[in-house]
Amino acid sequence: MSGQKLTVTYCDEYGVWPLIADDLSARLPLRNLKWQPSSQRAECIISTLEVDLKRFTVDHTPQPLSTTQTTYLNLYFVTCDLADTEAKRTNNYLGLKSSVFDKIRTDFNPPKQDRCAYIRKKDADGPQSETWNVFIEKMKEAILSSFDMQVLQIQEDTRRLDMQRHMPGWNYCSFFILKEGLAQAFEIMTLYEDALIQYDELEASFFQVLKDKALAWFGHFGGTDVGDDCGNILDFKRKNYRDMINKNIISVFDFRSYLFARQCRMLLKLQRVVEVTARAQFFITGFIPSIQENKEHLPDNFVESWVFSACMNVVNECEPLSTQLLGNNADLVAPYNAVKADLLLTARRQLDKIGIKCNHLPMTDPFSIYINHADKPRQEESEKTITNQKLLEAMGSVEAFDKTYMGLSTRAIKSYDASFRSRAALNVHGDIAALKYIRGKYEEAVRIYESIIWRYGEHEWSSIENSLLIKCADSQCRLGRSNQYVESLLALLKNASFLSPENAIHYTDEMISNVEKLDSEIKRPFSPIFSIAVTSIIDDVNTVDGASVEICIMNNLPKTFRYDTISLRLVGNDPEQIWFSIHNQDLAPGKNNFLLTSETSTSGNYAVEMCEMKLGKLIFSHNFLRPGQKKKVVRLNHDMKQLYSTLSQPNEICLGERQKFSVKIESRSVVSQSGTLSLESQSEGMTIPRVEKVSSVLTVEGSEPKEMLLDMLDTGEIVLPDLEPENVLEIFVIYEGSYTEFDYRVKTTISYKSNNDVDRKFISSDFVRVTVPLIVTESTIFRETCVFLKVELSCNGELPVRILGSYSKPSTYYLVDSQSEMKQCDLILFPKQAVSFIYKLVKRQEESIDNAILHTAELILSVDKDLLVSEACPCTLRIKQSTYWSQDDASVTAEHEFYYDIEVDYENWLLSGKRRLRFISKPGEVMEFPINLVPLKTGNLLLPLVRISAVSPEIFASTVYVNSAQQILVKPKSRTAIFFVEQQQRFVQTPTAQPYTSNALPTVVENGRSSASIRGV
After folding, report:
1. What is the rounded CA–CA span in Å between residue 125 and residue 119?
2. CA 209 to chain centre
3. Which of 455, 768, 783, 903 is deepest in the core (most CB within 10 A)?
4. What average pLDDT does the structure give for the chain?
5. Tell me, what's the pLDDT at 629?
6. How far apart are CA 921 and CA 1002, in angstroms?
7. This model's pTM is above 0.70
């Protein structure tokens, strides 16, 4: 009965209906009905109300209000001619207006109500007819009035019956029928929310009855009818449920199914599809225990079939409506798909249980997770069987089972992805991979496992990760994929605490035995299989042969294995990194201490960066410098027993030659063979040029030092001779750069083969202080017949210098005519002190100096008196080229181009004339150039300096300036001036006797103003 429209009957004894049927139907459904409940509830708006118009029959006679009805209005149509007659034998009907319409209203209308209306046949006003509007409004009022009366009556009856709950003879089924009548009344009026409230209250009252164990009105649990295991739980018409309730013969199974179906119908009417699926999940899982308690009367696999069918029924029923709703509201996509996926997965889990019972699946995870192992199997098989055809096909064929299993799993994954529940989707992926694994489809299983396992590792779901890894590793082993197999074994051993001791030993053995089969390197972190710590640095020669690093490794594996190499990398400045290592040792379970040594000898502070442990192509590493970890810095010193080198300035320094470093190499207790020395400048401005040979001195204990020339390769490396223990080799390496006083940083690298043919290195980066104890400054003064050489020595540094002697040797072009000879002096120069030596040099007669030209310049003043400031003084610049320094006779007539340059101090002089001028001269020629000098200051002023230079850079030109350091006295100009100063008083005052007299200035008064004048003569 539920689901019908509201019924309105009409009685047409006079043929009126055919004339108005179309007009009335066109105004249906009724819209915007406003119901004001008599129970003081808020006003309810019924936006649309469908009406089913039916001709009145005896069957539509009003029934008692306690029974559900759908007829809320009866219409009676009359014509004007018959209105008076019919009015005498009818009541409670609406009619047509006639001349006696007022009498009809009087006879039929109850107090304060107007239940009569009139309409016109073929009304000319059409849809906007006022009479029809009034008629429709009276229909609404009459329907709402009848509905309100019914609601009040049922509510009162229900309240009264509920109060009798604890009285003898009270019947829950009668209470249900009565209260459901109210729910259906709300449903007919499209008040689905109110109807749902009634069903929810009925459910709550049922659970109270269930709690009180008052189920006498239910004959048995039920579920034994054919099709109960696969019936649509949303179909409330599948059985005559209401009739069974009325007769008190309904089972608990049928009652729960009917009540849930009615609730879901209301929710679907309200288009709350998400709530439908959520309630379905709760109802299905909540009803399973009740079915389990009564399964002895049910067919085998009844629970699995009912749950499977119920879940699929709900999903399939909601799918069409959800498609429409989700298209209009994207916010519903995630919640709907989440509940839908749970329903699909619940249905799929029933396949797990059935598959195990039918031997389609093994009794292992993940298929056995939801098997209740406490359930006791039936002693006798039931004669009844389930009726779900899809499950029957799956039970009869592995192929059909797998097809159904994959279909449900795939749909669940798709819905989980749409709801952004990635973890739930991962679980289903794992189920599919497990199915592929047991079917021997290892390629597909591995592909799925490898795509999902790492996500469990990210979330530290170690136990779940291990269960997947075991199958994944076995599949990879069967496929012969050694690299992937070892990677899976490592992932298992990472979670060794979740493995049994036997499995941990087995997988450790498998890892060790398969390492040698690896095709490429596999790198993994130490943690959590291993942990490592750097304990200390040991460089005591009495304890170890060389500097060693002690490390402690914790092995969390249950077995001892042998590794190839453990290497520890330290990082610093020079060298940037250094490796310490140990080879071919056993790593036992628990703590292990090892001493790592290095083939490189160096010193400095180094940070521990990384450790690697190699087992074939399997590499474990640990980064000590990762973010958040405290940096560990250690101090390294050179190995005292290994080859050692120092860099310094040589004991002998020859100024004027290319400077050298002294590299001293001590072999100490080792034998050095095939060695090379490399020096690398780490300072700007200093380079080490390549030369063919490098001088050195080899000192062997008990013999004289031996000088040697060593070869330098194209790479700049110096080839070292073989050294025996306790040999010392000093090498002198030329460098280019400033050598007055500077600190150079030089990196020294020595590569060699030591005892037992082991390749070793010595690396050191040191500062070499280069200093010259004396600073030598030379200056030459050319004269027409000689050259004076001035050599000035000054102490450079903080230590005094003792001068033992000084002398000059003749050269190719010069002879030493005289000198400051100090061959046996004992002169001490202290810091900031200096001493000068003068040498007079003359030209050898048989030699001439190439391109050396000397000019004599003299500035001649034309006045003999002292100069006055600001007065110009005419001068003549006289220039003469000397013939003494000419190369030969032919050069006497040679002409060259020169220019003079007068260096004027403009604070003292002004120059009028050519300050710089180009001219051509030849030996012996005298040239004069006029200029004017204007002194700007008084006192003794130095005459401006004159220099003569050659235009051609190939000619060395020198100047003898006659007026060098000559001073000229400049006097000020003198003048005489006489000044008269007068002062006048501003006001005329009465002369009074002065107490004394003085030589005051004369004053005059003009027009009352005072004035003063100063006159200069």
Report:
1. 11
2. 60
3. 768
4. 84
5. 83
6. 74
7. no
* Spatial distance between the Cα atoms of 349 and 338, rounded to a whole number of angstroms: 17
Task: Give the span between the Cα atoms of 364 and 377, in whole angstroms.
Answer: 18
Q: Which residues contact 795 (CB under 8 A, 6 or more apart)?
A: 773, 774, 775, 801, 829, 830, 831, 832, 833, 834
DSSP string, 266-324: HHHHTT-HHHHHHHHHHHHHHHHHHHHHTGGGS-TTHHHHHHHHHHHHHHHHHHHHHHH
Cα of 216 vs its chain's centroid, Å: 67
**Of 620, 440, 616, residue with least CA distance to 515:** 616
Alpha helices in 912-953 (DSSP H): none
Read off the DSSP letter of residue 716: S
Q: Is the dihedral of CA 229, 235, 237, 243 positive or negative?
A: positive
Q: What is the CA angle 67-71-73, rounded to 5?
A: 135
Structure tokens given for 348: 């799929």
Degrees (nearest 5) of the Cα angle 837, 843, 849? 110
Position 327 pLDDT exceeds 80:
yes
pLDDT recorded at residue 832: 84
Task: Check: CB of residue 514 under 8 Å from CB of residue 481.
Answer: no
User: 3-state class of 107 per DSSP?
Assistant: helix
Taking Cα atoms as reference points, which of 954, 884, 944 lies closest to residue 914?
944
Partner residues linked to 968 by β-bridges: 941
In this structure, the chain runs to a length of: 1017
Q: Which amino acid is at 519?
A: D
Phi and psi angles of residue 351, each rounded to the nearest 5 degrees, phi first: -65, -35
Residue 659 confidence class, pLDDT cut points 50, 70, 90 = confident
**pLDDT, tens digit (0-9, with 9 covering 90-100), for 608-656:** 999 999 999 999 999 999 888 888 999 988 888 889 999 998 888 777 7
Please state, in angstroms and rounded to a whole number, the distance separating the CA atoms of residues 205 and 174: 13
What is the separation, in whole angstroms, between the first and last Cα of the chain?
Answer: 145
Bridge partners of 74, per DSSP, are 9
Looking only at the bridges linking them, the beta strands covering 852-861 and 956-961 are parallel
Cα(766)–Cα(760) distance, rounded to whole angstroms?
20
What are the φ/ψ torsions at residue 293 (nearest 5 degrees)? -65, -20
pLDDT at residue 217 in the model? 63
Provide the 10 A C-beta neighbour count for residue 931: 18
